């Protein structure tokens, strides 16, 4: 399960940033995880809660936005939904399709609280 190593990396980055900002705790972490990123959000949430124990993020809510996959045809320029890395343009049937959305994976924001809040 590679979600555990991903969760550990997220917790490490979030905890380090919160400490650098003088936070008492992290209350929320907002992620962008595209549907083609190869990461299972529910598994990531489970792993995040385990990885966050003993850190400033141990009580943080993990919110995950999941953008759909979108491909763009290299022949006709049409954009269309995709569910896999290889796709055929529904308009011109070209296989020259570039994924333009759905592979994202990033920490969008963290919400930190001062001690006592």
Description:
The chain is of the alpha+beta class. It has two domains: 1-67 and 102-117, hypothetical protein PF0899 fold, CATH 3.30.2320; 68-101. 26% of the residues lie in helices and 32% in strands. The protein has two helices and six strands. The strands form two sheets. Strands 2-1-6 form a three-stranded mixed sheet. Strand 1 (25-33), helix 2 and strand 2 form a beta-alpha-beta unit. The protein is elongated and about 60 Å long. The mean pLDDT is 95.
- CATH class call of the largest domain: Alpha Beta
| Silhouette | elongated
Radius of gyration: 18 Å
Largest sheet features? 3 strands, mixed
Summarize the helix and strand pattern as letters: HEHEEEEE
CATH fold descriptor of the largest domain = hypothetical protein PF0899 fold
Spans where pLDDT lies below 50 across 5 or more residues: none
Judged by helices, strands and strand pairing, the structural class is: alpha+beta
Strand order of the largest sheet: 2-1-6
Helical fraction equals 25-40%
Count the DSSP helices: 2
User: Based on the structure, what is the oligomeric state of the protein chains?
Assistant: single chain
Integer tally of domains: 2
Q: Into which percentage range does the β-strand content fall?
A: 25-35%
* Terminal residue distance: 35 Å
- Named CATH architecture of the largest domain: 2-Layer Sandwich
Number of strands: 6
Average predicted confidence as pLDDT: 95
